[in-house]
Automatic annotation (TrEMBL):
PROSITE patterns: HDOD (PS51833)
Protein name: HDOD domain-containing protein
Gene3D superfamilies (alphabetical): Hypothetical protein af1432
Pfam family, one: HDOD
InterPro entries in UniProt: HDOD (IPR013976), RNase_Y/CdgJ (IPR052340)
Top-level division of the source organism's lineage: Bacteria
Domain HDOD, chain residue ranges per copy: 22-215
């Protein structure tokens, strides 16, 4: 690593550790996390999600997209039905990715275009993973757990590029894109793990992410990570290739 790359690497990691700067809209996520941690009445969670109509619509869409290929289930027609079925952990994961995407849309060019490419890849991986799950027999895996996990498939790349955009916006000198490309290529695993640690995501998501990227093994045949690993392997996206 060159001196300049090391400088940028250090500064990018510092930005990644700032949850509010990376995610932005905390008005919903903070009380939502508190309500989930308290493990209280689901009505409190419903009220929080309902306070943002865009998030509520997104939740309903996500829930139905995960169930789409399951002929044995009817679509959720109300937010309450969707949230009750999702479970509180998946609710938070969906909300987190919703506000992350909102934040990404605010980035200046050329970072917005680049990160949107990563996001399109993420959505495609999520769709493939859910489709793959519905084709499997003899497993008992929640499709929303597969979908929420898959939405973090290239999480490290997205967060690193976002942090680099903020760094260049705040710095007196402009660092070339080739530096962050080199860091993503060579420090992807470190950046990804630090992003998970800094941004307060649940331990189960982190565990299944490690399984999905072949960084950890499991004997659980109902692991969402194993479903995602197959898709990531076919796309050459594994942090630790098979």
């Amino acid at each position: 690593m060159t001196d300049l790359e090391h400088q940028v690497f250090t500064q990018v990691r510092a930005i990644i550790s700032n949850e509010e700067q990376v995610i932005g809209r905390r008005g919903i996520l903070i009380p939502l996390k508190k309500a989930i941690i308290a493990d209280g009445d689901i009505r409190n969670v419903i009220d929080i999600v309902s306070s943002d109509p865009a998030l509520a619509a997104h939740m309903l869409w996500r829930s139905n997209s995960a169930m789409n290929a399951d002929a044995n289930r009817s679509k959720n027609r109300s937010l309450k039905d969707a949230l009750v079925r999702l479970g509180q952990v998946n609710i938070y994961r969906y909300a987190f990715t919703f506000y992350l995407k909102e934040r990404l849309d605010e980035l200046p060019q050329p970072y917005k275009k680049l990160v949107q490419g990563y996001w399109a890849l993420t959505e495609n991986i999520a769709s493939n993973a859910v489709d793959s799950l519905h084709q499997m027999l003899g497993v008992d895996i929640n499709p929303d757990e597969v979908q929420t996990l898959a939405l973090f498939s290239v999480f490290g790349e997205i967060i690193a590029l976002t942090a680099f955009a903020y760094l260049n916006a705040e710095s007196e000198e402009s660092f070339p894109l080739s530096i962050i490309k080199s860091l993503i290529d060579n420090q992807k695993q470190t950046l990804t793990i630090e992003a998970f640690d800094s941004l307060g995501l649940d331990e189960e998501l982190q565990e299944e992410f490690m399984i999905a990227h072949n960084l950890r093994q499991t004997s659980n045949p109902n692991s969402p990570g194993l479903v995602l690993r197959r898709v990531l392997s076919m796309r050459n996206q594994l942090l630790n290739p098979l």
